[in-house]
Specification:
Blueprint (H helix, E strand, L loop, with lengths): L8 H24 L24 H12 L2 E6 L2 E6 L2 H10 L31 H13 L3 H6 L1 H20 L6 H18 L12 H17 L19 H26 L18 H32 L1 H15 L14 H13 L9 E2 L4 E3 L2 E3 L4 E4 L1 H5 L37 H18 L6 H4 L49 H27 L23 H12 L2 E6 L2 E6 L2 H10 L6 E2 L23 H15 L1 H6 L1 H21 L3 E2 H18 L9 H22 L3 H4 L11 H28 L8 H7 L11 H32 L1 H15 L14 H13 L9 E2 L4 E3 L2 E3 L4 E4 L1 H5 L43 H18 E5 L1 H4 L7 E2 L5 E2 L4 E6 L1
Helix pairs in contact: 1-16, 6-7, 6-14, 7-10, 8-9, 9-10, 10-12, 10-14, 11-12, 21-22, 21-31, 22-27, 23-25, 23-27, 25-27, 27-29, 27-31, 28-29
Keywords: Iron, Membrane, Metal-binding, Oxidoreductase, Plant defense, Transmembrane, Transmembrane helix
Organism: Oryza punctata (Red rice)
Family: Belongs to the cytochrome P450 family.
């Protein structure tokens, strides 16, 4: 008989688990407060400092260490983590307190098949099995006598490597350095362990050899997947990402191969032969121990050495003088001998320095394997609590400018004598990598042989820009991952671009732990319940495809440090219309021209509303701003009407031609003065100030900056800084935008920061409004500028004019959007032209032909400058100022491309991805203005392969002014000056790295030298 009145156990289970997890988490936070932990960055609720890690945690943690010190505390989810980033801190952990930090926290995934109970990397040193494995590996695999006995084997494997490279050289084929070295190491290990090759370089990776290598790589990549369980261990039993199941399948394939080798060896042995090695209690190693040991040796022993040789070759190819010195030393020491013997290595002092310098700059495991505190331990005056995870950032130690001169530079000549904990790529103490002696021999022997027998050149397509030395995201690349036999927990660190997220704890307002629990637990339960409900509802809807979301945070970690690029890569996999779960917000991303047309044109009405960032609600800005008001709003229609008629209409623009010419004349005069003084021009800043003056003169009939007057520059600088701060703060990743349930708390206090900026901006605007009202009252003649038009405006519906807040917020929108976008477009265009001198020459030749000797360019000339127009279009294609435009919101549930976009979903149009779509553009990443010379594609929102200003009813109303101003400024700068890069920049070219935000800027502002023509 069913009791309908009693709740089912499953109905009670989920809330109880959520309450328990939340309570434990909050208790841990409260318990940390009175302890004397090392300094730490502020942390967010639930996720702690996970979002500080970025796409490359070793770099992010190094930057945090510069601010918080060489020993700092992070809260990664519910796990207290200590990070050491200096030689002294590393020495404290790995030597002085070695016993206290000798254990490892095993990642959840390595518990698959009970691997953590058999694997040397994860067993504690107190375990007899760990001591037995360490002893047998040290004695039978890595001891000097065993290594000397295996010299011939290593020489034979390197001989095969050289023969393979020689064959590829004869065929004119490029060499994949890491792949051939990886295969060589795989064979060396398999011959050492099984007396059998598992790969043949001459046969490629076909057959069983290729399958085994693929399995080893899959093993490493699976272990490297970010796992929410490692940060929220209370949910480990649920295995929400099913990673243990995935790794179990990989183990099954590996163990099958190992079992075949073991069985073959057992059949070959005499039936009564006793085991030759036993553990401390007299027992031999069981089958599972052997399998796990082999898995560790193959996964760790092949990649670390392979990636070190690859990095060394990359650095030498990038630094030809170092390559020459290494080859000259080899010629001097080895002479005409065709092969190198290991005994020669001691004489190759410069080669050894090359390897050390490679390890310093590119340690295979940048954070080593993690340690765990066995007891509360005092280090440097701070307490490291029992159970804390401890990471040693050897990447940061290797680039510490207090230890190394010019640490970012590859300089094998530097003095490595007397170095101790400044260079520990293999760790230190009792958990040092036992394979260090073999790795060092193999790296030196392979690198020396490749350099001695061959000259090396880059492929032509690479040689122009040099080797791409960018590191891949850690969890996607197993080669940046292992130092001791086993798995690299550092690969499990989650990464995201949201390193600017901060949170101020509310404990100052809470006086007791009970109050804290009563305050936070209902919020957490409500948040999680709404998330799971939304996920359940989404599962029943036919949403566009997308990556699988993680619990709680969804796909936030898929965004990376440059979301426009990350989402473009995801679109290649999931399609041009895809769904992401960003926190609790369903987000649909369009990444093709057809998808953009569906959203911005065919279903314009359904997607015409905006998804308003929480920071934009400061001071009620969203209730007055044309950018965020819905099109159904009377105020939006009035603002749009007056801006279109009085500011951006063709007649208004034509009437202001002289004003724009004056502002560009001032810009040219300023650049000429800098040229006479021999000073470099900050292109973006000069263009920004010119745009600022144009807007202020159009609106207020007054300049807010004078490029030629240092005294006026201070006031302009103040306004410029306010505008920049407004753009930056609104662009800061905000937890409230991903978890709207916590928005009333304003956890990052971004609304408060924006409100302070608004107050300062409004004070500036109020000064101009009051001055104009006084002039009017005194009978002064009208200036007939935009402010007069706004003060005279009366609505045709109700006859009312604009109130003061509406004017203040309108001016904020105009200055923030109208100055930055035009300035950054001019800066990107100049950067591309300086990076592509033939294109610069074509643009200047056209100007000379059309303009001739006229000192100034008139706007009527622009229509004849076809190549210049193509340059601007190509710049906006590659570098749209707003890579996602402004976010839209679905007003109703709508069918797009056969999928359902649910009501309330946030909709992003990735115009950056559309501009680089290889199905639309040939050589999409190449700057080629010529592609537009025979094309009818324009910028006005009708051609959806190029929509930097949007399209439909939410298209940027300032498009006509922006287009005129960008062309006029760029043409004038090119016509009146020749341009050169600074000497320190010219060698490597312009740094084209992007800085993501509301506006897509150059990460390094463009500074160039102007030469008057």
């Amino acid at each position: 008989m069913v009791n309908h009145g009693a709740p089912a156990p499953v109905d009670l289970y989920a809330p109880c688990v959520i309450l328990l997890v939340s309570s434990l988490y909050l208790l841990r936070l409260f318990a940390d407060a009175p302890r004397n932990l090392p300094p730490r960055p502020r942390r967010l609720p639930l996720v702690g400092n996970l979002l500080e890690l970025g796409a490359q945690p070793h770099r992010s943690l190094a930057r945090l260490a510069e601010r918080h010190g060489p020993l700092m505390t992070l809260r990664l989810g519910a796990v207290t983590t200590l990070v050491a980033s200096s030689p002294d801190a590393a020495r404290d952990i790995l030597q002085r307190h070695d016993a206290a930090f000798s254990t490892r926290p095993a990642p959840d995934i390595v518990r698959a098949c009970g691997h953590d109970r058999f694997a040397m990397p994860w067993l504690p040193p107190s375990c007899p099995q760990w001591r037995a494995l360490r002893k047998v590996c040290s004695a039978e695999l890595f001891a000097p006598r065993r290594l000397d006995a295996q010299k011939r084997l290593r020489r034979e494997k390197v001989r095969r490597l050289v023969s393979h490279v020689a064959r590829m050289a004869r065929e004119g084929a490029a060499v994949d350095v890491r792949r051939v070295v990886f295969t060589t190491l795989l064979n060396m290990l398999s011959c050492t362990l099984f007396s059998a090759d598992l790969a043949d370089l001459d046969e490629g990776r076909a057959g069983s050899a290729g399958e085994f290598a693929d399995t080893i790589e899959e093993f490493a990549s699976t272990v490297g997947v970010p796992n929410v369980v490692d940060y929220f261990r209370a949910v480990a039993a649920l295995n929400p990402q099913r990673l243990r199941r995935r790794l179990s399948r990989v183990f099954t394939r590996l163990f099958t191969e190992f079992d075949e080798q073991i069985e073959r060896r057992m059949r070959e042995r005499d039936a009564g032969e006793p085991p030759t090695r036993t553990t401390e209690d007299g027992r031999a190693f069981d089958r599972q121990t052997l399998r796990s040991l082999f898995a560790d040796l193959f996964s760790a022993g092949s990649d670390t050495s392979a990636v070190t040789v690859e990095w060394a070759m990359a650095q030498l190819l990038q630094n030809p003088s170092s390559m020459m010195k290494a080859r000259e030393e080899l010629t001097r020491v080895i002479g005409s001998r065709p092969e190198i013997d290991e005994s020669d290595i001691d004489s190759l002092v410069y080669l050894q320095a090359v390897v050390k310098e490679t390890f310093r700059l590119h340690p295979p495991a940048p954070l080593l394997l993690p340690h765990r505190a066995e007891t509360d331990t005092k280090i440097g005056g701070y307490t490291v609590p029992k159970g804390a995870t401890v990471l040693v950032n050897i990447w940061a130690i290797g680039r510490d400018n207090r230890v190394w001169f010019e640490p970012g530079k590859f300089m094998p000549e530097r003095d490595f004598r007397g170095r101790d904990f400044e260079l520990i790529p293999f760790g230190s103490g009792r958990r040092i990598c036992p394979g260090l002696p073999l790795a060092v021999r193999m790296v030196h022997l392979m690198l020396a042989s490749l350099l001695h027998r061959f000259e090396w050149r880059l492929p032509p397509e690479v040689e122009k820009n040099g080797v791409d030395m960018e590191e891949k995201k850690i969890w996607y690349r197993n080669v940046v991952g292992y130092a001791t036999p086993g798995y690299c927990y550092t690969n499990l660190i989650l990464g995201t671009r949201y390193k600017n997220v901060s949170f101020r704890p509310c404990t100052r307002f809470v006086r007791s732990i009970m109050e804290l629990l009563l305050l936070c637990t209902p919020c957490v339960i409500l948040l999680l319940s709404s998330l799971y409900l939304r996920l359940f509802v989404d599962a029943r809807r036919d949403l566009p495809p997308g990556p699988r979301p993680l619990p709680l945070i969804g796909n936030i970690l898929d965004l990376g440090s440059q979301p426009h690029r990350s989402l473009a890569r995801l679109a290649w996999r999931y399609g041009p219309l895809m769904t992401l779960r960003l926190g609790t917000v369903t987000t649909v991303v369009a990444s093709s021209r057809d998808a953009a047309r569906d959203i911005l044109q065919r279903h314009d009405a359904a997607f015409s509303a905006r998804s308003v960032p929480d920071a934009a609600r400061a001071c009620g800005h969203d209730g007055f701003s044309m950018a965020w008001l819905p099109p159904s709003s009377t105020l939006w229609r009035a603002l749009r009407r007056v801006c279109t008629a009085e500011l951006f209409a063709p007649r208004s623009l034509d009437a202001h031609q002289r004003l724009r010419r004056d502002k560009v004349r001032q810009l040219v005069s300023h650049v000429a003065r800098l040229a006479r003084d021999g000073a470099a021009v900050d292109v973006g800043r000069a263009a920004f100030t010119a745009s600022l003056n144009l807007l202020s003169s159009t609106i207020f009939s007054a300049d807010l900056a004078d490029l030629g007057d240092a005294r006026a520059e201070s006031s302009a600088g103040e306004l410029r800084d306010l505008i920049s701060e407004f753009t930056i703060v609104v662009g800061v990743p905000n937890v409230s935008d991903f978890f709207p349930a916590v928005a009333p708390l304003d956890p990052q206090r971004l609304r408060r920061r924006v409100a302070r900026v608004f107050e300062q901006l409004q004070a500036v605007f109020d000064g101009h409004i009051e001055r104009r009202l006084r002039d009017r009252a005194a009978g002064e003649p009208p200036k007939n500028d935009f402010l007069d038009a706004l003060l005279d405006y009366r609505s045709p519906e109700d006859g009312r004019g604009f109130d003061r807040p509406t004017l203040q917020f309108l001016f904020t929108d105009l200055f923030s959007a109208g100055s930055d976008t035009s300035a950054v477009t001019v800066e990107w265009a100049m950067a591309q032209l300086l990076q592509n001198p033939p294109t610069m020459a074509k643009a200047r030749e056209e100007l000379a032909r059309v303009i001739g000797s006229k000192p100034e360019i008139d706007e009527s000339d622009i229509s004849q400058l076809k190549y210049l127009e193509a340059v601007v279009k190509e710049t906006l294609r590659l570098h749209p100022p707003a890579p996602f435009l402004l976010p839209h919101q679905a007003e109703t549930t709508t069918q797009v491309g056969g999928y359902t976009v649910p009501k309330g979903a946030r909709v992003l149009v990735n115009v950056w991805a559309i501009g680089r779509d290889s199905k639309v553009w040939s050589d999409p990443d190449k700057f080629m203005p010529e592609r537009f010379l025979q094309s009818e594609v324009d910028l006005r929102g009708r051609d959806f392969e190029l929509i930097p200003f949007g399209s439909g009813r939410r298209i940027c109303p300032g498009l006509p002014l922006a287009v005129r101003m960008v062309h006029l400024m760029l043409a004038s700068l090119l016509h009146r000056f020749e341009w050169r890069l600074l000497p320190e920049v010219e060698k490597n070219g312009v740094n084209m790295t992007e800085k993501f935000g509301m506006i897509l800027e150059l990460a390094t502002p463009l500074r160039a030298v102007a030469i008057p023509v």
